[in-house]
Amino acid sequence: MTARSPEQDEAPRSADEGPGGSRRVRRRLTFGVAGDLADMPAALSPWQRAYEAWRAAGLSWGHGAPPREPAAARPRAPEERPAVPSAKPAKPARKPAAKPAAKPRRKTAVSEPGDVLVAGPPRPPRPPLMRRLRFRAAIGATLVLGAAFVVVAVSQGEDDAVPARPGLPAPVEADALFAADPAAATDGLVQSLAAVAADAGTLVAAGTEGDPDPGRERPQFLVSADAGKTWSLARIRTQDGTMPPLGEIPSHIAGGGGQWMAVGRTPSGATVAWTSADAKTWTRRQPSAAFKPTDRVNGLARTGGGFVAVGGTVGGRAVVWTSPDGQTWQRDESLTWIAGLDRVASSGGVLVAHGTQARKVTTRKGRRKVTRTVRSEGFWRSADAGRTWTGVSVPQGQGSYGETRGLAAGPGGGFATVREGSRTTGPKKRRKTARFGVLFTSPDGRRWQAVGRFGGGGIERFGGAPSGLAVVMRAATGFTVLRSGDGRTWQPGGSVPAGVRTSAVTVASGGAVAVAGRQGDDAYLSGVDLRGVAGAVRAERAVRALAAGPGRAVAVGSTNGGAAIWSAPDGRAWTRAGFPATGGRLADVVHGPRGWLALGRTAASGPLAMTSQDGAAWQKAAFPAGPPPLAVATGPSGYVAVGARKAWRSADLAAWTSAHLDGVATAVTATADRYVAVGGKGEGPAAWTSADGRAWTPAKLPEGLTGRLTRVAARGGVLVAIGAGEAPLVSADGGTTWAPQVLGAGLVPTAVTATPGGFVAAAATPEGDAAVLASAEGVSWRRLQVPGLSGPGERRLTALTATDAGVLATGTTTDGGRTEAPMLWRARVPE
Prior knowledge:
mainly beta
């Protein structure tokens, strides 16, 4: 058992606050431990015994000392302080003190409220040497032995400080500790490229990479400065330098002349933008008020004066947004006769947009007139940066039919679009139909004409840039790519394999064609093996939960799209558990009276359960069909798992009974007499309690909170729950009622665990760093000085557990969105 420092319940003081901290330590020692340290005379008061304890230990008592006369304190002037008796043992050659008391030391500052001034009898004879050593050892143990997270410095005299103990260790990279599946055939992540754009020899492709679950994607930008010969992964940051949130998907990109921009959507449907000055580093911008939640941005173009985006509202009205820099936007909804815009191109100060127009058409049915709304495509032109628009016509020609496909500002400063075309020839019984494409161009966006054909079996994609035009045509197997430098003659530009879903095509200088899209669960970029681009393709790996049992720690999660378990007897040397490949992922793990249990979901989103007796060898176990469990705990009635509107209980890990739960529970823990689950209901947080895991009672939460709770920890009857908000919720009555508490300005909690001495929480800072905090009761938190949790990139501690040796945490470190690696942190923990 480790002794606790008296200051462990208080926030650490800085070095320049040393005297104040020293006085506080003395005051705590006076009432807390001094009276029990040695066999002092019972007649001494606690103050007198404390003084003798400090004197015998060789420690300075403070700013005051007992006068020599036992009857009363000698009067003194307000600016005077009593002399501080020497705390050092007298030399053997020196006779017992017979000299008059030392003259009081003068000091202009008056006593502070924290000063300890002691009055007492004359100093008794010094105890034997062994007793003094016992005093020193007892006080020293009280001060330093239990301070795994707090270093307490006690002054020797007025200004000399004892050297501080070594601080907490830094986390270590754990790439080799939490190994991926060596036999995996896939990386386990879903990657897609939604847009590609060119400016002379610079190419940029934008898309996402992430978990198969919607809302877990990471935005991704790939850039080439040599017309597609070599590629690299761009950096992405927010305006304040942190990592961008998950789930944001770029869908359109445009740039040139030192300004690049991409637009997309957040998981909630809001419009989000990214900007870049060099296409190599991108900044995620705060959503602008010019974009409403019901808007849909369908096209983006770079203009001479900035950017223009086009789209529409859910109600069916066209919207045009203009911006000089991609940060400030103006909104225009005046195009009431246009139902929506879906493409835009810019050339020479002229804009051309394509969209849908609604016309009223009246026909006769017998004697009745019937009026209906007919929607058809339309083109509009603007010569004043999008302030006013005029309709233009793109006529059919050279065997074309149907609507146009794509829109580009092509070679020579003009505009281009394409249509499907066909021609049937031969006698009636031997007629043959040839399919092709027809190109339409305009030098100024006002007058359009068909200028030529190109062969193929159907147009899949069309795009281009001033460097040239390109079209992706359907073929017998896969797709054929054609390119043109002048819009009249076409040459082969490569091929695209079958199974690729193309999203965009463009042309860089020298006629280099870039086609972007998706092939299965992988991104596709024509002519590029993305596995050779550093950081572009990563193997999925996530440590989602930690638990400790007798002599072993276990971590669960997934790698390469399959469930993964690692264990370590000491928390240092981790070994991946071997079991048949199991698609899916594990979300939580616990050790109970019948062994280890890990729960999660299969690749098909069904429940997944794994059990083990020793934490090293694991096997699949049965679990009731239905929604997958999200968390598990052990308590008074056995194992209890929770999930979406369900809870399950088992006493032996063989038979399970289910119960209804009104909400989505994402975490569960147990006290001595009940289970407590937290999660969400609707848009807000929720918590429930149950005595046996069968009947669940909603808890009372403060009003006005939003977002789910994601973690919960219990110590005795005190519980701490964290979630999307900055303030953790604390319950002092076993989960019945909850109240928010302050964690720290700007800190967002990411993990929490209970320890013998209280609670330890991990949090994310606004700068993208990680932080560790400790609290005895969950109400007041102190931030611990853990090195290695700040610096370039982003660091997160996402799982915590208490072990026999202290606390164990896992997380990730990300370098500007390029690479992500796991990290491991181990440290001692106060009781």
